[in-house]
Amino acid sequence: MTESPVSSEELAWLDATAQADLVRRGLLTPRELVEAAIERIERLNGTLNAVITPLYEKALADAEASGLPHGPFRGVPMLLKDALCQTAGDPYYGGMRALRDRGWRAHEDSTLAARFRSAGFVFCGRTNLPELATSVTTEPLAHGATRNPWALDRSPGGSSGGSAAAVAAGMVPVAHGNDMAGSIRMPASACGVVGLKPTRARSSLGPQYGEYWGGVTHEHVLTRSVRDTAAVLDVTAGAAVGDPYAAAPPTRPYREEVGVDPGALRIGFRSVPPGGTDLAHKECVAAVEHVARLLDGLGHHVEPTPAAALDAPELFQALPTLFSALLAWELEQWSQRLGEQLEPADLEPMNGALAEAGRSVTAAQWLSGIQAWQKWARGVAGLWETEVDVLLTPTLPSPPPRLGELAPDAKAPMDLVADVAGSIAFTLPFNVTGQPAVSLPLYRTSDGIPIGVQLVAAYGREDVLIRLASQLERAAPWSGVHPPFSA
After folding, report:
1. Which of 110, 160, 163, 183 is catalytic?
2. Which of 149, 234, 255, 458 is surrounded by the fewest CB atoms within 10 Å?
3. Residue 159 annotated among the catalytic residues of the structure
4. What angle do the packed helices 30-48 and 161-169 form, to 10 degrees?
């Protein structure tokens, strides 16, 4: 090919669906797409520090291989968050210095990675995250801070901060993320991209896990378009053999929901963090009010709602017991895999303190905490039976912090725990209920910092969210707005 049908700059901002279409029509080869992505990563990553493990040689080989699958995203370059979505033979650290220093490598593809491969995606590297994905900022001691391409002194959020920064900056059109308490939605908000947390068990966590972190973990991607978010869900959704449970399948492909009229929905909105009494930051309140007016103009029935069930105390009462026990478990499982005992001192200060506390949590306390969360979730889920079709909230209670403010060594461990808990107030509830929730980039502060809003639907109703998000994307397009530091 002597001349590309699109310029290098145009290619950087095409979504995955459009890039795949260029390959399908023979206008670009998979290798050309991958080479262009590698050039962008190399040019931007020295400043952003979004990619911690380049996989360039493998990516180029995969792009040229005769066996590259003819899936819907054939040849499209992709990045994987360095958590859960393991790829056979590749380095895997989970943000941990202990794994980095020992050069740990994954032994097999996760089910999700295998499905990405079958769809035709080409993995160009692995992205940065906080240690064990436990923070709301991506500043691990193992790899250093990832910078937000909208403001280099700001956090890109966490824990999928490297993936969100990479997509926002135009390195790749789509990157994997996972969400245990907001870790897809929060960086999507901070970096101005689309971040859907699907319904619990929509995608498999196999073959290693049936569920992860007490059922709050959800896997998906960060993208720049609603149609990419929907189409990727089509290729990854569904139970794998041996999964303990599965979400009910959709009635038709999610991609077919894009552009469908959602009808007049009952949309409630709330800007007080669950369990709190004061409004979120004024910019986050302004974002919700802006989108509420937009939705009202689109014909929906929009009104404030107290959503009082969210304020029941069990959510945050059980959090310290459960998350500390989970940190202790993480330490134990990695000790077993490495064949040597890791101690809390091998972790960052906050995680180490939680792991130490978690060692004294009894099985009875763990089960009591899970039961409390499940009872709380039943009360919250009832809101969608009687009051709303969709709930609108801020994604984050405040704009993304400046780098260093929530760094692992910025303050005493328990003070940092309190800050993290406050930051996940709007997102954690729907990891516990398992409902689908999406952050959309529909607002920016006066100095240009993205502020995402969260839309939450009933359990299993990603179709409702995709229709509504697509309607908002058409009404208030964001695709033409790019961060100052980008491709």
Report:
1. 183
2. 234
3. yes
4. 120
